[in-house]
Structure formats: structure tokens, C-alpha cells
Amino acid sequence: MSDGDAADAVNTADAPAIEANGLRYAYPDGTPAVDGVDVTVESGERVALLGPNGAGKSTLLQLLGGLIDPDEGTVRYFGETEDADTVRGRLSVLTQNPADYLFNPTVREDLAYGPTQQNLRDGEAEARVDRVAERLDLDELLSKPPFRLSGGQQRRAALASALTVEPDVLLLDEPVSDVDAANRETVLDLFDELAADGTTVVVSTPDTELVPQVADRVVLLDGSGRVAATGSTRAVLTDTTLLTDCDLRPPQVVRLFDGLADDPPLTVDAARDRLDGDDI
Ligand code: ADP
After folding, report:
1. Ligand 1 pocket check for 146: Cβ under 6 Å
2. What does DSSP assign to residue 250?
3. Boundaries of domain holding 33
4. Is 183 domain-assigned?
């Protein structure tokens, strides 16, 4: 360890989980996807990367997760390193493509794959697989070949494989996009539990209805790979002009309460509580 590393190590306790500066990325065919983006994610935060299709969310998530290297800019993890490979066990990235995570003969082996690389005590990998499978209602699917699963089942299995490594930071690209309503609730409840345990969670989505359920802070991307705004979930989701300018539809209840309340509810449940109290 150099002197510089030692000095850094002393100061990392309160460092952001992820600190990205000046990120730029264009695909080999020349398509610019991320164009000068700064993002800081504090440890324990729940952050949404929100933007319309093609805004660069998936690309940004892959840059933040160290799956691709930026053309320009830096990503620093835990205040310690810019080398994602050295923090792989602390960082789980779930891309849009579940098949990236499901390549073993059975779902059980896919879920066990990460933990078996982690040098755990005997039986711990299996215990984690059973725990996560039960939590995500995957028990019945564990002995199946992953390619036999439906799209929504594959997405939950891929999420489970990201969870069995028990990461400090989870980066999830549209994690409930093709998951049915009942399983969506299960997944969202699990996100709440992870946040309560202090896991840092970054979710990319074009869905303004999902954002209040998964994030306290929003990084809003415009249609051209740049940050249009960052702010609390409430501040961003109630700025209907800003959202419309970014080709996004504000949440339904925000539109419903627009002009009726200064601080509109963000979710149907919050709206119902408000109406039950006879007070909009
Ligand atoms: P989002 O996740 O917000 O929908 P993406 O990060 O997938 O946005 O895409 C950002 C831009 O990069 C889009 O213009 C998209 O068409 C382009 N893009 C994505 N993947 C590729 C690729 N493999 N090759 C070329 N262009 C791509």
C-alpha cells in the first residue's frame, strides 16, 4: 500500500458508495449514450436513475457498475478505488438481460454461483440460496433449468443471484419491468428490507409510478445522455413541467392532485390516506 492509499483508507468511512465524475460514453458505432454525467450515491441511499427510453440509463448503470469503461471520466467506489474488480463482492449489478446471470444447468446453481466464489464457511452459500429463494418465491423453480423459466421468473431469478452475494451496493436496471403484480409487490417489499438493512440501491427506470416506491432521490436524465436535474423524489416528481420536458409523464396521482394541493401525494396509497383524512 502506498502512502497515498494509506491516507485514503483513513478517510473512507463516510465516503460515498459511488462517486462518478464527468462520465462520457459513446458506443463503437458512434452513438453517444452518456454525455458528461456526475453522480454521487451516498452509502445507504436509495437512488433512481429516471429518464425516457434511450436516455442513457442502462449505459450509465453499466458505467457505475464497472461493466464498461467510460471514454472519459472516473467512477470511485467507497472512497477507496476506481477499480470495480477489486470491489466485486460488495457490488451487484443487474443488467436488462437476465440471461447474463443464468448460465448454469439449474436455477439453484445460478443462485449459488456468486457466494461460492466468496470463500464462505461451509453451508453458508446453500443457506443464502434457500433464504433468498424463499423471500422471492422461487423455491419451486430451484431445480429447473433457467431457460425453461418465463421472462418475469428469469428476472426474479437474476435478481436473486445478485442478492445471494449480499452486496453493499445493488445496481438494478428496470428490475420489475416484466414482473407480474403480485411478484412486483414481493420484490418491492424486499427492496424496503434491503434499504432498512443499509444496502445502497440504485434503480434505473422510465416509470415515474415506480420511483416513489424505490427511491428517496432521483437523478433525472434528459433524452440525450445528460442530467436534467437531481433532487428528492418529491421535488422531481412534482415538477410536472420538468418531467414533461424530459418526455416523461408525471405520476397519475400527482396529475390528479395538480392545482388541488401544494404537496400532492406521490402514490395511490398516500392519496388514499390523504382522502381518508378528509384533507387533500
Ligand atoms: P436507456 O436505458 O435510457 O433506454 P440506453 O443506455 O440503453 O438508454 O441507450 C442510450 C443510447 O445508446 C440510445 O440512443 C441507444 O439507442 C444507444 N445504444 C444502446 N446500446 C447500444 C449499442 N450496443 N450500440 C449502439 N448504440 C446503443
Report:
1. no
2. P
3. 3-249
4. yes
